[in-house]
Amino acid sequence: MSSDVRVLAREESGIVLVKVIIPHPNESGSRKNEQGLIVAAYFIQEGTVLLNSKPLLDIQLGPSVSRDPFLQFRFFGKKGDRLTLSFRDNRGEQFMADTVVI
Amino acid sequence: MKRRHFLVGAVVFSALRPFQLLASWSEKSFRRSTLQQAFLDALGTKDLLLSDKITIVAPPAAGDSSLVPVAVISSLKGEELFLFVEKNITPLVFRCILYSNTLAFFSLNIKMKESSALYAVVREGEKYFMATVAVAVEAEGC
Question: Is A14 within 8 Å of chain B by CB?
């Protein structure tokens, strides 16, 4: 399990903007390397975000997301709200993070 | 008394365990297909109503096809957001399920195989609304 996921959640006028970066090669499975061989698919497939332990967002991602996926979303919230994020790639590895809204 | 302590411990332990992912990734929705088939696979319909309440923010021309910033924004009370790239091998890029506190906004960097139309779809109740925009890719590098 990796904890490299970077999250920033900032509140302004009752709306929280969340920025997430998941360090990951995110190979689509259709790219060829210098030898002309297909690089195996290796990408983030799904994620869940909880706000104060309640569901806020579920996300399913395909292979055409860039390297080191950078996601942004917004919700109605306040400073001090707790966010818990969990992502999983196609090899079953989990990436988790939590943060407090500032 | 001991039993009670044990039960309290069990509750605390289960609360600390990593939670299960609620979303279930759909092989079918993300498979190689045409755009029309991808609509059917992901949405169950091709009947999409063109809406001016959905905005796709994307560069009209992208210098790096492996890093195209795209945002989908809607003033609809969206319950789900989708993004499709017509010319990509697997057209569906993401499916986003929104709960009551979440705004209809999602942004991420995507890969594009070639110049293509982007389609954003928002589900509101039983209806699917759609907006489209074209992005030109200057150099292929997917």
Answer: no
Give ipTM to 2 decimals: 0.91
The answer to whether position A1 is within a domain reads no
pLDDT tens digits for range A3-24? 589 999 999 999 999 999 999 9
Whether A24 and A69 have beta carbons less than 8 Å apart is answered as yes
Q: Is A41 on the interface with B (CB under 8 A)?
A: no
**Residue range of the domain that includes B42:** 24-137
CA distance to partner chain B, nearest, from residue A86 (Å): 7
Does A34 reside within a domain? no
**CB–CB of B37/B103 below 8 Å?**
no
The mean pLDDT of chain B is: 86
- Decide: helix, strand or coil at residue B86: coil
